[in-house]
Amino acid sequence: MVSHKLKFFYGSGVSRFKLAGILSSNPYVRTCSIDICIIPNFNYFKDLTGFDDNDILVAYKHYPGVLQNKFPSLVAPNLVLLRECGVLESNILSELVNHPRVFAASHEKFKKTVEEVKKLGFNPLRQNFLSALQALIQMSKST
To answer: Which residues of 26-52 are buried (b: 16+ CB within 10 A; e: fewer)?
Structure first.
């Protein structure tokens, strides 16, 4: 089973060196099914962003959850909300690759945090809107 996973990643153009670094720092991928988790979520992320395989692996390195079954169902409503608020698609996609964990927040928490960011006066058309969103989502209630 491991050889199938390695073949998939090598076929995506990932170097052995880069793959070794990613797998050693985020071993989740070794335990999930290639057919149920890895390939469908890899392709979902690729189709969603239009980015190349290496950018998807950058996102995985930041947050291994991008290859989990639940990631697409968590991300989709949060992306819709940002688009409805007027956040630029290019900003959304950049943030999604560089900080995918932010988008994995529950929709309830994500929606409340978006409202907080708006109340603080951040403009959804500016990149700092997403920076503020990231900061608030990653803060605990006690901070």
So the answer is: beebeebebeebbeebbebbeebbebe
Give the pLDDT confidence of 10-29 residue by residue, as tens digits: 787 777 887 777 777 666 77
Selection from 66, 4, 65, 71 nearest residue 34 by Cα: 4
C-alpha–C-alpha distance, residues 123 and 94, integer Å: 17
Structure tokens given for 69: 């079954």
pTM over 0.85, yes/no: no
The angle subtended at Cα 79 by Cα 73 and Cα 81, nearest 5°, is 110
Per DSSP, helices labelled H in the chain are 2-11, 16-25, 28-31, 39-49, 53-62, 71-84, 89-98, 100-103, 107-119, 127-138
| DSSP secondary structure letter of residue 105 | S
